[in-house]
Amino acid sequence: MITALLAHSFFLSLNSATVHPANNVTLGFSLADSLAEELKKDVFYLADDKLKGRGTPSPELDMAADYIAERFKSFGLKPGNGESFFQETTWRTTDKKVRNVIGIIPGSDSELKSQYVLITAHYDHLGMKLVKEGDSKEGVDLIYNGANDNGSGTAGVINTARLLAKSKPKRTLVFMTFYGEEKGLVGSQYYVKNPVFPLKDTVAMINLEQIGRTDDTEGARVSEISMTGFELSDLGTLFNVVGKKFGLPASGHPRNSFAYFGASDNMGFALAGIPAHTVCTSYEFPDYHKLSDTPEKIDYGNMAKIVTVVAETAKVVANQAKVVSWNQNEPRAKRYIEAAKKLKGES
Questions:
Q1: Which of 34, 153, 269, 277 has the smallest set of CB atoms within 10 Å of its CB?
Q2: What is the mean pLDDT of residues 169-195?
Q3: Is-cis flag, bond preceding 57, omega within 30?
């Protein structure tokens, strides 16, 4: 997640209901424990020193992309971009390749299958700490492992896909991980400008960011779900309804909910008119963008509960007749409502 101050600057630069969820089955302890172990396995891989902080661009980021694609493939997901799991381009003015990773569960309804629900996260981080020549000492940690930011969100997308892989959603579920978020939301912006699936047919985006750490700087956040821009659309209400069934209410934050709405990859989609929010546990945690953001500090049991709610909510969004929409009674949603009308050719 980029900082709230940077998000505000980026935000400015880009622009000079009743819910009836489907029946849910609470996870038993053994299945919840299994999910926690799968999440732990994925985070420990993504945050391992051998991936050198997953900087954009880098061979190690490519390793992470390949790992995510293989995980999608192992669950039976279909490639999201033709015959490929990758949306590939080059990094800025270089010839170095960068890739968004995309897998799908095709919709089963003859009409609704051409509508899309996105579950996303960025899989990059900061890479390695820059040091002056001769300053590096053997044994000194120089790797920004990025376990919570955003190995946790990436593992969340992977395992949401795993939980839903055998389902038959009416709408198509799209699981996507972005490159270059830490460089200014680059991968998600590239997708918005070059969508694989029509933006006008994309009904919602659930973005996962920092879902592993419960030690928020304001105090412990256990069995709670935070969402940026909570009041802007009815997706927040839906998350709360579903979350409560699992003992995880969802809410906004008096300050951070809006301060961080533009701080992650949901922002480009929201500006295009698509109801898009970031789900997190802690907005701010002690090791944010530090070398000490390591995988052993994550609460995998709590993370498993969050991923369960994400999967169930995504399933509701994919299957319910009602389409997620911006909150017409929220003044701060006006720009997104107007964007949605423009996207659908209504203005």
A1: 34
A2: 98
A3: yes
* Amino acid at residue number 159: N
Q: Where are the domains of the chain?
A: 4-343
**DSSP assignment string, 34-89:** HHHHHHHHHHHHHTSGGGTT--SS-HHHHHHHHHHHHHHHHHTPEESBTTBSEEEE
At which residue do the structure tokens 């701060």 appear? 332
pLDDT of residue 63: 98
Token duo for residue 14: 């880009």
Handedness of CA 169, 340, 261, 334 (dihedral sign): negative
What the block records as the tokens of 183 is 């460089």
Indicate the length of the chain as a whole number.
347
DSSP at 119: E
Measured distance CA(165)–CA(325) in Å, rounded: 26
Contact call for residues 225 and 239 (beta carbons, < 8 A) = yes
Please tell me the pTM assigned to this model.
0.90
Give tens-digit pLDDT for 38-60: 999 999 999 999 999 999 999 99
CATH superfamily entry for domain 4-343: Zn peptidases (3.40.630.10)
Confidence tier at 29 by pLDDT (50, 70, 90): very low
Q: Which residues contact 261 (CB under 8 A, 6 or more apart)?
A: 7, 228, 229, 232, 267, 270, 277, 278
Residue 66's Cβ-side half-sphere holds a number of Cα atoms within 13 Å equal to 7
